[in-house]
Design goal:
Length: 317
């Protein structure tokens, strides 16, 4: 989706995927910095490890305790940190569709470069829920399945959006207890309980990994909670496009959506952090759909994409 977006905006940038072992993450970030990449995306397990490896943390990374996006920044002559794109020669798109090399404001390589860590995952949950399901989170009652990394972030983000009631269910209940404790401490106005609700809810949100493999059962025990009691169901899983949970949700008459919108919006936010330009959402969505759903063979390239992606700009055109 990023390469499609760069092309749409006439940027001579490339988004590349690299597989990096956790032990090599520090060296990989240092290498990307030395090569003056514009930025990086990180995925599991690098998101947590990178917290201690970047030079500065944005509030988003501090709040959510994970870094999924890095922007490399250089110090200018006034000692201000600017994205590296401000230093290198970049191509600009003109009104007539032609591209032109633009003179950099600084016109030189910065002496010092830092890695600035951001998190774009948490905001993407809320954007996707609004866009795909028209869910209004303020005052909502939500059943959240999963209390791993994604589940914890979703729980805290939903609480920060002032949901009224949050029911947490996890295969390992002690992890749901821990997340419930964090919410009680940080968001005392949100009513939080561990276990299935006895009331109807506005949203069921799956943040477990159950459903990723074909043949996986639904993560929701229907004996404990009937989907007829839910207005909307969101599954963070986007591949397969329809999990057992989503199939059951549609059969029960719920609004239902898979997690492609979350993937799109975390990417769109990262794109804006790197380029300073609004993300072309339609272009990115179409590219994602083509990549995820229309490739019939699972190519080695798409396997690499699921591990770690790196974006670099071609600094010298
Ligand atoms: P992520 O970062 O994607 O959230 P994770 O932290 O490993 O990954 O969390 C995976 C989540 O899926 C957890 O909630 C996990 O439940 P446990 O905490 O009990 O491990 C849940 N999960 C994974 N496999 C599952 C299964 N077969 N049945 C139910 N829940 C499962």
């Amino acid at each position: 989706m990023h390469n499609a977006a760069f092309a749409a905006l006439g940027l001579n940038w490339r988004y590349l995927a690299f597989e990096v072992r956790p032990d090599d993450l520090r060296a990989a970030i240092a290498g990307a910095k030395a090569m003056q990449f514009a930025g990086l995306n990180l995925t599991v397990p690098h998101k947590l490890l990178a917290l201690g490896m970047v030079d500065a943390l944005d509030e988003s990374a501090k709040t959510w305790g994970a870094v999924n996006t890095i922007r490399f920044e250089g110090r200018d002559s006034n000692s201000a940190w600017l994205p590296l794109r401000e230093f290198g020669v970049s191509s600009r798109r003109l009104r007539d569709g032609q591209t032109q090399l633009a003179e950099p404001p600084e016109g030189r390589t910065p002496n010092e470069i830092r890695a600035h860590g951001f998190n774009t995952d948490a905001d993407a949950i809320v954007t996707a829920l609004r866009e795909d399901l028209k869910v209004e989170l303020r005052g909502a009652k939500v059943l959240l399945l999963g209390a791993g990394g994604a589940g914890r972030t979703a729980a805290l983000k939903l609480a920060s959006e002032n949901v009224a009631e949050l029911f947490l269910v996890n295969r390992t209940p002690s992890k749901a207890d821990t997340v419930a404790g964090e919410i009680k401490k940080q968001f005392p106005s949100v009513r939080v309980a561990v276990g299935h609700p006895k009331i109807a809810v506005d949203l069921v949100l799956n943040a477990t990994s159950l459903g990723l493999k074909s043949g996986d059962p639904s993560p929701l025990a229907e004996k404990q909670f009937s989907l007829r009691q839910a207005r909307s169901v969101y599954d963070m899983i986007y591949n397969p496009a329809e999990t057992a949970l989503l199939k059951a949700a549609k059969a029960a008459g719920c609004r239902a959506s898979n997690g492609l919108g979350m993937l799109l919006h975390q990417g769109a936010k990262a794109f804006e952090i790197w380029t300073g330009q609004p993300a072309p959402l339609d272009v990115m969505r179409r590219a994602l759909e083509a990549e995820v759903y229309q490739s019939t063979v699972h190519s080695p390239q798409s396997a690499v994409k699921s591990s770690q992606s790196v974006m670099r700009s071609k600094m010298k055109g």
